[in-house]
Each structure stands twice: as structure tokens, then as C-alpha cells.
């Protein structure tokens, strides 16, 4: 497998902090552009995709292969379900994310957690026009009082937390939540958050107290988040 660079020190420091004290296995990769990183079954999925989709797919699958190998799963093709979500080996839960030229993946055994969601966002100026559409008032209020040079970072942290929660809700309850359904309660000091869907919007298959745990981190280029359900 060629054409890839696996991680940088700042990135791994950030991901290590997010997953500190857990049994999760993760991988981060950039510049994966060669389809040699894919197994034959994975290549078959991408035969009709454009170049940008193919490179994202290569990055994500390569990271996922690396994360799985760390826990003993070798040469396992990762296919996808009808909604595009990765199909993991029996007894394994995981998540893949990509942004810009990078991708990350995390996996864990279901004996430890029910499911996990991972999100990666490239740090940019956050589009303020979508704040009122995607965020709840309390979420916006949590970072409006901070210095303006940090506002974009904090907005992306909440956005990323919502994205990771969406993946975890799907992995654990097969429910495709919308960004504005999910409420993020962020602890900015400790870099942790909880994610839930208010009872007024809770699908019948959810218990009223279903709440995900999560952590968020960042380096000079990316914001990372992960949400999981024990």
C-alpha cells in the first residue's frame, strides 16, 4: 500500500487526548490517493464515483484498515450499508470521517461500548449564516461571549460534536438524526460534551434519558470530536 502519510505529531496528540483512558483504536491519515489501499470488494463500490469521492473513500478506508489491524482484524474489506455507513466486522463498532486532505477512523469492541461516532473538521471561518438553522440558542450562547478569534473554533467544535453524535445515534439506534435535533452541552474547560435529543423530538425507539458521552479536541488545522454510548 503506497501513497499515504499516516498522521502528524499535533494530530496524534489531539486524538490521543480524545481517546485517553479508552480501549478504542484509531488512525489518522493524509494524502492517500492510491486505490492500492483498497481491497477488491471496496474498489467495486467505487467504480462509478468521481475523483474527489474516490480519494476521500481511499483515505477513510485506509485509516479504518489500520485501526482494525491494531485490534487483530487483518485484511477485512469495509463495505457500506444502504445509507453509506461502514459495515464493520461482527462484534465491532467504528466510525470514519474525512475533511480536506485528511481522514480518521476509530474502532472498538462492542463488549466495551454500544457504538461510536467520529468527526473531523478542517479549521476555517465558520459560516455564521447557518448558526440559527443548525444550532440551539443555548449552544450559540455558550461561545458568543468568548474572544472573537476563538468563535470559529468553538462553533466548529459544536458542529463536529453534532456530526459525531449523528453517527453514534445511527450506529446504536439506527436513527438518522438531523443536526438541529441534537443538543450539545459542552464543557469547554475539560473538552467534554454530552449529546441528546430532547424528549419533545425523541423517536419512540429512544428512551427519554438516552445521552451520549463525547470529547472534542483540536490542533492548528483540524477539529476532532467523538461521541459514544456505553
Task: Explain how this protein is built.
By secondary structure, the chain is α+β, with helices and mostly antiparallel strands. It folds into two domains: 9-118, Ribosomal Protein L22, Chain A; 119-224, Ribosomal Protein L22, Chain A, CATH 3.90.470. Helix content is 32%, strand content 26%. It has six helices and ten strands; from the N terminus they run H-E-H-H-E-E-E-E-E-H-H-H-E-E-E-E. The protein has helices at residues 9-19, 40-45, 51-69, 131-134, 137-144, 148-173; strands at 25-30, 79-80, 86-87, 92-99, 102-109, 115-122, 183-187, 192-196, 212-218, 222-229. Strand 7 and strand 8 (192-196) form a beta hairpin. Helix 5 runs antiparallel to helix 6. The longest helix has 26 residues, at 148-173.
What is the approximate shape? globular
CATH class of the largest domain: Alpha Beta
Question: What is the overall pLDDT average?
Answer: 86
Helix residue percentage: 25-40%
- The third-level CATH topology of the largest domain is Ribosomal Protein L22, Chain A
What portion of the residues fall into strands of 2 or more residues?
A: 25-35%
Tally of distinct domains: 2
> Which series of helices and strands comes N to C?
HEHHEEEEEHHHEEEE
**How many DSSP E strands?**
10
Which architecture of the largest domain would the CATH scheme give at its second level? Alpha-Beta Complex
Rg computed from alpha carbons, rounded to a whole number of angstroms: 17 Å
- Structural class category: alpha+beta
CATH superfamily of the largest domain: 4'-phosphopantetheinyl transferase domain
> How is the largest sheet built, in terms of strand order?
6-10-9-8-7
Query: Can you summarize the main beta sheet?
Result: 5 strands, antiparallel
Question: How far is the first residue's CA from the last residue's CA?
Answer: 34 Å
Q: Unreliable segments (pLDDT under 50, ≥5 consecutive)? A: 1-9
Quickly count the helices: 6
Amino acid at each position: 500500500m503506497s501513497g499515504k502519510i499516516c498522521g502528524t505529531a499535533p494530530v496524534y496528540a489531539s486524538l490521543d487526548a480524545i481517546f485517553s483512558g479508552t480501549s478504542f483504536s484509531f488512525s489518522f491519515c493524509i494524502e492517500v490517493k492510491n486505490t492500492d489501499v483498497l481491497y477488491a470488494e471496496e474498489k467495486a463500490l467505487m467504480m462509478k464515483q468521481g475523483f474527489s469521492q474516490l480519494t476521500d473513500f481511499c483515505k477513510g478506508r485506509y485509516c479504518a484498515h489500520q485501526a482494525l489491524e491494531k485490534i487483530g482484524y487483518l485484511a477485512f474489506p469495509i463495505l457500506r450499508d444502504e445509507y453509506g455507513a461502514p459495515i464493520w466486522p461482527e462484534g465491532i463498532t467504528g466510525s470514519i470521517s474525512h475533511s480536506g486532505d485528511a481522514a480518521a477512523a476509530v474502532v472498538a469492541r462492542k463488549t466495551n461500548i454500544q457504538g461510536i461516532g467520529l468527526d473531523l473538521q478542517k479549521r476555517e471561518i465558520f459560516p455564521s449564516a447557518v448558526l440559527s438553522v443548525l444550532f440551539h440558542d443555548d449552544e450559540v450562547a455558550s461561545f458568543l461571549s468568548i474572544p472573537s478569534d476563538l468563535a470559529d473554533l468553538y462553533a466548529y467544535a459544536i458542529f463536529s460534536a453534532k456530526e459525531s453524535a449523528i453517527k453514534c445515534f445511527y450506529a446504536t439506534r439506527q436513527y438518522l438524526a438531523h443536526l438541529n435535533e441534537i443538543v450539545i452541552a459542552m464543557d469547554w474547560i475539560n473538552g467534554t460534551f454530552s449529546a441528546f435529543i430532547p424528549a419533545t423530538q425523541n423517536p419512540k425507539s429512544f428512551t427519554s434519558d438516552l445521552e451520549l458521552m463525547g470529547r472534542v479536541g483540536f490542533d492548528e488545522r483540524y477539529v476532532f470530536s467523538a461521541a459514544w454510548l456505553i
